[in-house]
Specification:
The chain has 78 residues and is of the alpha/beta class. It has 2 helices and 5 strands; from the N terminus they run βββαβαβ. A 3-stranded parallel sheet has the order 1-4-5, with helices on one face. Strands 2-3 form a two-stranded antiparallel ribbon. Strand 4, helix 2 and strand 5 form a beta-alpha-beta unit.
Length: 78
Amino acid sequence: MVRIAIVPAAGSGERLGSRKKPFVRLGGVPLIVYALKALNSSVYIDAIIVAVQAPDIERLKGIIKKYATTPKPTAIIA
């Protein structure tokens, strides 16, 4: 059985003053990086799907590449 984590990260950011939460930095690192690292370290997760708004797909790909957060198979969908 394949266990897939789904990360819903497509919110509008209204409650943060239109700042999209996955891209808000904490300690200089986007929040989404912390989530992806945690999921990648879990022995219970085999793959990850991150759902973002279509305009954010390339931005997220860049973050994943920069921080090398995903040794597990990861799909980015809108």
